[in-house]
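Morning. Coffee machine broken again, so started the prediction first thing and wrote up yesterday's gels while waiting. Chain of 230 residues, entered below exactly as on the submission form.
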Amino acid sequence: MASPAGGPHSPRPRRTQDERRASSRAIILAAALDELYEHGHAHSTTVTVQRRAGVSRGRLLHHFPSRESLLIAAAQHLAAERIADMEQWVVDSEYGGTTGTARCERAVELLWGTFMQPYFWASMELWVAARTNDDIRAELLPAERRLGTAVAHVVATLFGPALSSHPAFDECRELLFTSMRGVAMTYAINPRDHETEPHLASWKRLARRMLEVDDGDPADASGQYGQRNG
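Came back before lunch.
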């Protein structure tokens, strides 16, 4: 006897061509990122990614016609996913309701944590390769600029509206970025617990000083700073 429609033994609806394409692309990107993170740019090729993803060479090249486009897309894809996850976490968690010193210092901690993620190391592999490879540089630069816009938005979300509307916020963010990036690179040759990083206290002091955060709640100043972009 045939199972009733929608019953436990009903065949699953066939995926559309777009769904199959999206699925294979995601598998390829995940494999490429793992290769880049584990073996570095020099040893990550379309052949190693194809083998890891378990797809045909034709399918891989259909999505990504070059090694450069594949590796850059992999790093950017994961970074974009993590940015979206972080923004949603701020909305859903109690953290989104914190203000003042607690919000400022926790935002610095969360920002520093992103520099220990696989997508950071994958990106650094590509940055170094781009120094001597014009093809990588040509594809990487516009991709990084697009990602940079999303990163700036999520960092503002981490700090919250009162702090991110401060006139010195953009400068503070860039100082934190450049300093954290430089310190993170030392972990490549000297791995250690990033949560005990001595610079963390200095970054918190820098943020509090530049954003004029004291033990009170800076939300009262949001009206003053809110005119910055008006």
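The mean pLDDT is 86. Going to sketch it on the whiteboard this afternoon.
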